[in-house]
TrEMBL record:
InterPro entries referenced in this protein's UniProt entry, alphabetically: Arylamine_N-AcTrfase, Papain-like_cys_pep_sf
Protein name as it appears in the record: Arylamine N-acetyltransferase
Family: Belongs to the arylamine N-acetyltransferase family.
GO molecular function, one term: acetyltransferase activity
Pfam families given in the database record: Acetyltransf_2
Source organism (scientific name): Actinospica acidithermotolerans
UniProt-listed Gene3D superfamilies: Arylamine N-acetyltransferase, Cysteine proteinases
SUPFAM superfamilies with a match to the protein in the record: Cysteine proteinases
């Protein structure tokens, strides 16, 4: 287990240290992480290969106060949970929906956490449509969440799929994964032009009532499960200000982004 500065991580996400590694503490930490550390693909946009080594993830998320992709966000959260006494397993799988349509994402293109308490829970702080609360693995039927209705469905070959408001979002394999298992995927996503979304900016952060998402220059806000606004930020100065105000990341200039008119 990697030794980290727990107090610095808790300060980064605005969380209180749990008295014990229990369900209430897990819910608090999960929500605070999602509301403080954004999902963002700036590195992929700039064709830079993110490192998933523990020390590099901590430096990026906590010291530099950046966000990251699913592998970085869930890996960083894993370090925090383990340091607080939680039993955590890293799992890998693939995304099955991009916000507009179904597709078959890369194997090990997504990472989630399995946390063992009185029940086994799935935790995901690195996905735009993830639940705010941990999902019980042994629960059948829809689990209510502030972000909608979620259901864990077991496939015939032993994987699990997450269905969110009727949409199958991802499939996860249930055997443990090591961080190195995701390294090739990170390289591929950052360098191969044929990857869906290559060179495009995706960013998202959870708010009290929904989330605020960026797709290239399109800013979209959701509240209570509904899209409440969407607009294209054509002015560079406005883009930079909105990006910093929303995601806490200061950019020197706007990346070279494809033209998009519809958000996700």
């Amino acid at each position: 287990m990697t030794t980290i500065d727990v107090d610095a991580y808790l300060e980064r996400i605005g969380a209180t240290r749990p008295e014990r590694p229990d369900y209430a503490g897990l819910c608090h930490l999960t929500e605070r992480h999602m509301m403080a550390v954004p999902f963002e693909t700036l590195d992929f946009t700039l064709r830079e290969i993110p490192s998933i080594k523990d020390e590099d993830v901590f430096e990026k998320l906590v010291t530099r106060r950046r966000g990251g992709g699913c592998g970085e966000l869930n890996s960083g959260f894993r370090m925090l949970l383990e340091a607080l006494g939680y039993r955590v397993t890293l799992l890998g799988g693939r995304v099955l929906h991009n916000g507009k349509e179904s597709f078959n994402g890369l194997y090990n293109g997504h990472a989630v956490l399995r946390v063992e308490l009185d029940h086994s829970y799935i935790v995901d702080v690195g996905f735009r449509w993830c639940p705010r609360k941990p999902l019980r693995l042994d629960a059948r039927g829809v689990q209510a969440d502030p972000h909608g209705g979620y259901e864990i469905v077991y496939t015939p070959d032993g994987d699990i799929e997450m269905v969110h408001d009727g949409v199958t979002r991802w499939r996860i394999e249930m055997h443990p994964r090591a961080l190195d298992d995701f390294a090739a995927t990170m390289w591929f996503c950052a360098t191969f032009p044929g990857v869906p979304g290559a060179g495009q900016l995706w960013a998202s952060i959870v708010t009290e009532h929904g989330r605020i998402s960026m797709f290239n220059r399109v800013l979209t806000e959701y509240a209570n499960g509904e899209r409440v606004s969407s607009r294209v930020l054509t002015d560079d100065a406005e883009f930079l200000k909105v990006f910093e105000d929303t995601y806490g990341i200061k950019l020197e200039k706007v990346p070279d982004l494809p033209v998009s008119t519809e958000g996700v």
